[in-house]
Amino acid sequence: MKIICIGRNYVEHIKELNSAMPTAPVFFLKPDTALLTRNRPFYYPGFTSEIHHEVELVLKISKLGKSIGRDFAHAYYDEIGLGLDFTARDLQDDAKKKGLPWALSKGFDNAAPVSRFVPKSRFPDLRNISFHLDLNGKTVQKGNSSLMLYPFDEIIAYISQFMTLRTGDLIFTGTPAGVGPIKPGDLLEAYLEGEPALKCRIK
Ligand code: MG
What we know:
With 203 residues, the protein is an alpha+beta fold.
């Protein structure tokens, strides 16, 4: 399986990082070795001193598809969860400056903790899903799918022009504002529509 991540999908987050507004969805990949499941702890690696949390809604692809039309995209995912797009911001800033890829800063081991997935039929309105992230009991990020520049169906239509989507692939759909550093000892708790969904202790 592959993990596809959308960058720059919430205006307030684009502003906080002084990034340019995209004219099409920006995406990058994480390898499957980045997956961290079942609320397992994250061990802070030695090659970075600035990992940021980015809480995101995550789609799970349910059907093989290529060049999927926007109007049919909804049939290609059936579950939604939450994920943390851990980002080594120091390495990413350096890569951005040098025009190098983001693989190191985004694709390291366990850089993609994900929650359990919920059938999308449980959400009354996919364009109005709220989520938030608490760091040590204090809310640091709040998002809602209504604020996405590129909604789910548009993301799937866009990506599948270039890459075949397979059952089990995950799509991280971008983070809202409020990203910030984590350190050993921290506890991250992510909530989907107010319900606890994902927990990650930093060691
Ligand atoms: Mg992200």
